[in-house]
Design brief:
alpha+beta; 8-stranded mixed beta sheet; 58 strands; tripeptidyl-peptidase activity; Tripeptidyl-peptidase 2
């Protein structure tokens, strides 16, 4: 039987690895040193307090000591204060909220706010709930409503096969309109999600809060919470979402922070570090006795991206809670290492407050120098690489074979660009453990250095638990040295991936115990060589001759170390280097002073490839302790490629996880390369990674990176082009994926190509005429076919408002250092629906290395509805906006107010994607560019030769509609004809000049000249008329009426004044009378005769056109005003509840006639007539009077589409939905109102 083959001993130990790191051995020997007494801060997406394993420690203490959201994404403005009346308050959603009698509130005052649940949901949860709500609350009811309306239309058509009467036609149009409204509503359906009233109050002892998750105002059914630290309470919003939340209250009740998790990442990380399963200890995290401080730094508004402000707030919380350890499984590529505002605050916490900061090294390998910031670039941080063991391969990944332990292919590699090793230690980089309840799964496999970091962090928590119990002092520096000096070096894994090796918890603890009285425990050594932390030679010229480096060693102490210890510090040390190509002094006497040594590096005899060594410093009195500091030395010896533009590697065999690197000196002038990989295996399909990187000063590695994961078919061949920078060394990495079984033989080759411009970008001003640039081929014969494509229009904005303010209690650094914010407000208009990307170029693309804390922007429509957000990396945040007016609020923070003052006029760019790309023509010479003939096609360029290219200004009729002076069109230019060469592109910027003036049309001169006195009297008259709408009463109108009884503009203005008056509803008969007066003054027959003419050949035809257009506008305006007034009068009579009266019948007849009259001059659904009154509002009211609800709704929708949405129009639509029995649309619209029309901008 097959059951006899079953292996019943599942490799449970491989699910959350402990054996590989010595943690299992340590706990077997010291079961009480399980993390108890240690607090680990998890800075991540947030943690679900209800997830399995996160309830208690091994001692029964609460596992989570506090949960804090430092992002602001869960903040609710609760500054509105109300008093309860008869046990009720009205929430900001408009719902009546019933106060339970059991609540204690001595002041009877309640802070209220509102929060859209979708702003709190992780992306995956939002998508699930949206789908479920649509299927449950929308689709079934909508299908019924649509089917019923279609049946009504079919029945009507059967009863009226040939509708002739206007009433019949309008009735059918109404049913068709109902179907249109339902169809449009389904297409545009956008679930606002649950919208919760929030109530905060003080019970006499502490602040409490409740979120109305009932959405009915039944607060008695909701959970009342206090700040998590006080009671460790949390709740779930609904049984459907299973999203647990907790709260914190700030600013005397004016800010409620609803804390949820922005993803499952943080919960998984926390469980690796410290989960405790009392009944299933095999599932425990590394340090089950440790407590956790949860700090959410992943902003829900940004898809869980970290921000500078959330990180600084997080470190403030870490220091205030006196956390022992930080796990940080986040990071980004930085343009320069070991600096920036965020990194400085982290370093302050480590050096001055004794916090041990552990971070992921990054998942961007296998090329060298891909470590992320801060994990691999910051001296105060312990960076952790990712290792996979044979047990993990079996238990987590179900591989058919157990391979030797290795680094994951994707684990980032050192060294840092300034020479530091980058990766300190390595740890298992995968685990199956708990995830949040909202995922509806108990556990999940995740891998990454995000998992290796908490594994190492948990191991360090075990060590600290033992040290604290045995009362042995330690510092972050002594812990790091012990970890690095006792780590297990894994065979066949390069040092750049594993650092000093796999963490060994038991050995590191014994090391710290054995050397607890060492004089270097409280001192750290800052290594500097020309401002860098190591020696990193990656330049061809520097690797061809020996060179001496002056290295400074500077002892540093924490603020709590006394003067006597500093004075007493002396140490005689030995400097050792195993590499023959590095020379260093043999000894160095250390004291509390900066010392310098000279190190000579001679790379001349080294083979091609990368070489690493260290100058290690040992205490001569205690050499077995291991190095007290290390000076890393890395040398890259590239292949010589002078005049060699094609390189090939013969038959090469790859084992799983095997990496082969080649360092190629890219030929000067090269702009792209083509890399070809060929399989020699007739049976096996394998997974490979190609990774190529070139490093430039002050630029992140991603600036010149090519990465490709691909399946190489048996005997298959794949070619991949990518851009390169001539003159820089290329780290060309070919790697077989770590889990791709079997050995594979391949060949691979690379060829370099060159089509280079004489400039790195083109910035062309429309006013500067024809633009010239030259294209040169440096390496070989190439075909040139330049192509310029414009895809975006960029609008620069200056701030409309600027405000600098001190922030609250959450934003005060140690020693009372207050953090300030500057909030810049930008307003802009969107002329049509399109995608936009806000960009703050002064600060963009900088996060950890930025001198400022943040550049968080929030985007709102003109009703303050939140539309989206963005931060450091603008290309990640693109938002689709409809036509309308919008506001961007940008927040930048710093403790130095004067630095913020410099930003008060900072420019924001709105990058708008064009609806269709614009191609710009190129030419081979100036004459062709001028006359637009013979566009540049293809030219063959010999090696070493160049060809000129000419670009004329873009024709005005090709420019995007609405583009104007000061805006820029942006795109790219490619030079090569073939597709591989198009991977190399250059930025193209086209700066717009003033748009052409429209020709000025002069009116035909009148035959009779007016005297100056007559002109004055007319001007005075017109001036007085313009004031009629601004003054109360009719005195001015009566005065002018006596003098100008037939002057049409006078009466039209009076109609407008009455129609816009605050007491309009009391003046409806007067408005009707005034409108009739204007209508009678206009000769409609003559007007109709004029517009019936096909062509007016009279010499003063323009004058007649202007005058008749004006008359037509006056006529339509007054017909519309009259019609609206008649409709309002009818509706008022009906509202009084009276039966149909003779007056109502007469008014309706007049209204119907007016509607017919309007139709003679304008379409009933026409939105604008010249600059005059809209026709559409009358059509809406006409439909309302006739109970044509479909036509009324369709009109309301069209009004909203072309103007600012309003709560009033939505309320009107709700009333119509109710009359039609469309309850699902009533509910949807009512739920949307608090989201679309919030009382405040959401907080930062």
């Amino acid at each position: 039987m097959a059951s006899s083959l079953v292996d019943e001993s599942f490799p449970v130990a491989g699910l959350l690895p402990k054996k590989e790191t010595g943690a299992l051995t340590f706990l077997s020997k010291y079961p009480d040193y399980d993390g108890r007494g240690v607090t680990v801060a998890i800075l991540d997406t947030g943690v679900d307090p209800g997830a399995p394993g996160l309830q208690v420690t091994t001692q029964g203490l609460p596992k989570i000591v506090d949960i804090i959201d430092t992002t602001g994404s869960g903040d609710v403005n609760t500054s509105t204060v109300v008093e309860a009346k008869d046990g009720e308050i009205t929430g900001l959603t408009g719902r009546k909220l019933k106060i339970p009698p059991s609540w204690q509130n001595p002041t009877n005052q309640y802070h209220i706010g509102v929060k859209n649940a979708y702003e709190l949901y992780p992306k995956q949860l939002k998508e699930r709930i949206q789908k479920e709500r649509r299927e449950k609350l929308w689709d079934p009811l909508h299908r019924v409503a649509l089917a019923e309306t279609i049946r009504k239309l079919d029945a009507y058509d059967s009863a009226h096969p040939h509708p002739n009467k206007q009433e019949e036609k309008l009735a059918r149009e109404d049913l068709v309109a109902q179907i249109d409204v339902l169809t449009t509503a389904d297409k545009k359906f956008n679930d606002p999600g649950p919208v919760y009233d929030c109530v905060v109050f003080h019970d006499g002892e502490t602040w409490r809060a409740v979120v109305d998750t009932s959405e009915t105002g039944d607060l008695a059914s909701c959970v009342v919470l206090t700040s998590f630290q006080e009671s460790h309470q949390y709740a779930a919003f609904t049984l459907a979402d299973m999203l647990n939340y907790s709260i914190n209250i700030y600013d005397d009740g004016n800010v409620l922070s609803i804390v949820t998790n922005a993803g499952s990442h943080g919960t998984h990380v926390a469980c690796i570090a410290a989960a405790h399963f009392p009944d299933e200890p095999e599932k425990n995290g590394i340090a089950p006795g440790a407590q956790i401080l949860v700090v959410k730094i992943g902003d829900s508004r940004l898809g869980s991206m970290e921000t500078g402000s959330s990180l600084v707030r997080a470190m403030i919380a870490v220091m205030e809670h006196k956390a022992d350890l930080v796990n940080f499984s986040y990071g980004e590529a930085a343009h320069w290492p070991n600096g920036g505002r965020v990194c400085n605050v982290i370093t302050e916490a480590v050096h001055d407050h004794g916090v041990i900061f552990v971070s992921s090294a990054g998942n961007n390998g296998p090329a060298l120098s891909t470590v992320g910031c801060p994990g691999g670039t910051t001296s105060s941080v312990i960076g952790v690489g990712a290792y996979v063991s044979p047990e993990m391969m079996a238990a987590e990944y179900s591989l058919r074979e157990r391979l030797p332990g290795m680094a994951y292919t994707w684990s980032s590699r050192g060294p840092s660009v300034d020479g530091d090793l980058g990766v300190s230690i390595t740890a298992p980089g995968g685990a199956i453990t708990s995830v949040p309840n909202w995922t509806l799964r108990g556990s999940q496999l995740m891998n990454g250095t995000s998992m290796s970091s908490p594994n190492a962090c948990g191991g360090i928590a075990l060590i600290l638990s033992g040290l604290k119990t045995e009362n042995i002092s330690y510092t972050p520096h002594s812990i790091r040295r012990a970890l690095e000096n006792t780590a297990l070096s894994v065979d066949r894994v390069e040092i750049f991936a594993q650092g000093y090796g796999l963490i060994q918890v038991d050995k590191a603890f014994e090391h710290l115990v054995s050397y607890s009285d060492c004089p270097t425990c409280n001192v750290r050594f800052c290594i500097s060589t020309g401002g860098k932390r190591g020696i990193y030679i990656r330049d061809m010229t520097k690797s061809e001759k020996p060179r001496e480096y002056n290295v400074t060693i500077d002892p540093k102490y924490g603020d709590d170390i006394g003067a006597q210890e500093k004075i007493a510090f002396t140490m005689q040390t030995s400097l050792v280097c195993e590499a023959s190509w590095v020379s260093c002094p043999s000894h160095l006497a250390l004291m509390n002073a900066s010392r310098a040594v000279s190190i000579r590096v001679d790379p001349r005899g080294l083979s091609e490839g990368v070489h690493y060594t260290e100058v290690q410093c040992f205490d001569t009195a205690n050499p077995h302790k291991g190095p007290i500091f290390r000076i890393p030395v890395t040398v890259v010896k590239p292949l010589q490629t002078t005049k060699q533009y094609d390189l090939a590697w013969g038959e090469t065999e790859f084992k799983p996880g095997q990496i082969r690197r080649s360092f190629v000196q890219v030929p000067e002038g090269a702009t792209w390369a083509e890399l070809t990989v060929t399989s020699l295996d007739p049976e096996l399909t394998s997974k490979f990674v190609l990774h190529c990187i070139q490093l430039e000063d002050h630029m992140a590695y991603r600036s010149n990176e090519f990465y490709k994961f691909f399946h190489l078919q048996e005997l298959g061949q794949s070619t991949y082009p990518f851009s390169v920078r001539g003159g820089l060394i290329l780290d060309l990495v070919v790697a077989k994926w770590w889990a791709s079984l079997g050995n594979t033989k391949i060949t691979y080759s690379i060829s370099f190509h060159s089509l280079d411009m004489n400039q790195k970008m083109i910035q062309m001003h429309a006013a500067n005429g024809i633009y010239r640039f030259d294209v040169r081929s440096h390496l070989r014969i190439e075909e040139v076919s330049p192509a310029i494509t414009i895809k975006n229009c960029v609008q620069p904005l200056r701030p409309n408002d600027c405000k600098i303010s001190p922030l609250g209690a959450r934003d005060v650094l140690p020693n009372g250092r207050q953090i300030y914010e500057i909030v810049l407000t930008y307003n802009f208009h969107q002329s049509k629906t399109s995608e936009i990307t806000p960009n703050c170029p002064l600060l963009s693309d900088l996060l950890y290395e930025s001198e400022y804390e943040s550049q968080l922007w929030l985007l709102f429509d003109n009703n303050k509805q939140y539309m989206g957000a963005g931060d450091a990396y603008p290309n990640q945040y693109t938002i689709k906006l409809d036509k309308g007016d919008y506001t961007i609020r940008l927040q930048v923070r710093h403790e130095h107010k004067d630095l913020l003052e410099k930003l008060k006029d900072m420019v924001m760019l709105i990058d708008q994607k064009l609806s269709s790309s614009l191609n710009v023509d190129c030419y081979q010479n100036v004459p062709n560019a001028l006359n637009g003939k013979s566009k540049f096609n293809t030219v063959t360029v010999q090696r070493g030769c160049s060809v000129p290219v000419f670009i004329p200004p873009v024709a005005d009729d090709k420019l995007p509609k609405g583009a104007s002076l000061g805006q820029m069109l942006t795109g790219t230019i490619t030079l090569a004809k073939n597709e591989p060469g198009k991977t190399d592109s250059y930025p193209f910027i086209y700066v717009l000049t003033q748009t052409p003036h429209k020709p000025h049309v002069t009116k035909a001169e009148k035959t009779k000249e007016k005297t100056k006195e007559e002109e004055f009297q007319e001007a005075l008259r017109d001036f007085k008329i313009s004031w009629i709408t601004k003054l109360e009463g009719d005195n001015l109108y009566q005065e002018l009426l006596a003098a100008y009884p037939e002057h049409l503009p006078l009466h039209v203005t009076q109609v407008t004044a009455k129609d816009t008056h605050k007491d309009r509803n009391k003046m409806l008969p007067e408005i009707i009378q005034l409108a009739d007066k204007v209508i009678l003054l206009i000769d409609q027959s003559a007007l109709a005769t004029y517009f019936a003419m096909k062509t007016d050949t009279r010499p003063d035809a323009l004058t007649y056109k202007v005058e008749n257009d004006k008359l037509k506008t006056y006529l339509i305006n007054c017909l519309v005003v009259k019609g609206c007034a008649l409709a309002d009068r009818i509706l008022a009579i009906r509202a009084e509840g009276e039966a149909t009266t003779e007056e109502e019948t007469q008014l309706q007849q007049q209204m119907d006639q007016t509607f017919n009259d309007v139709q003679k001059w304008a379409e009933p659904e026409e939105k604008k007539v010249g600059v005059g009154k809209k026709v559409l509002p009358f059509s809406v009211k006409f439909a309302q009077v006739h109970n044509h609800y479909g036509r009324q709704l369709k009109g309301l929708m069209k009004l909203t589409d072309d103007s600012r949405p309003s709560k009033e129009s939505d309320r009107k639509a709700i009333e119509v939905y109710k009359k039609l029995g469309w309850d699902h649309l009533v509910r949807h619209t009512e739920n949307s109102i608090p989201v679309k029309y919030p009382p405040h901008y959401i907080p930062f």
